[in-house]
Amino acid sequence: LLGAGQSTYYAIGAPPDEGGWPIRVTEPQDTARTLSTALLRDQALSTSGSSEQSFELGGRRYSHIIDPRSGQPVTGIVQVTVTAPTATDSDALSTAMFVLGPERAAELMRGVSGTAALLVMDIQSEERVLALDWNQRWAE
Fold first, then answer.
1. Could you give the angle at the alpha carbon of 39 between the alpha carbons of 117 and 135, nearest 5°?
2. Which of 52-56's residues contact partners 24+ apart within 8 Å by CB, and which partners?
3. For the whole model, what pTM was predicted?
4. How far is CA 122 from the centre of its chain?
5. How far apart are CA 114 and CA 49, in angstroms?
């Protein structure tokens, strides 16, 4: 299991007698809590988010991820986690999907085989988590 910082992991094979390397996907606002656990085997996982890297201006919190179309910080989403065949794909897709938002993210993901995503919106409701082909274990 190779880790690049805290945002990207690449698994080659799996631990002995295991189905994959367990990687915790944490709650954006409370990293002590697990949102889901991904089992990686010969694939990568990357997370883009604003919970650890953001800034505050005028009493409002903004993401460090900038939408290149508007030049403004992305709003409405706080975290995107993507699994993909390569670390390059998972890293690029997690940031792109963060910027594009849920509707366009699903469209983008369909164009890259072997991918799955977990998007967390900046709302407090049951619809705040969107799973796209996410067959990983959910925290209980």
1. 45
2. none
3. 0.88
4. 14
5. 22
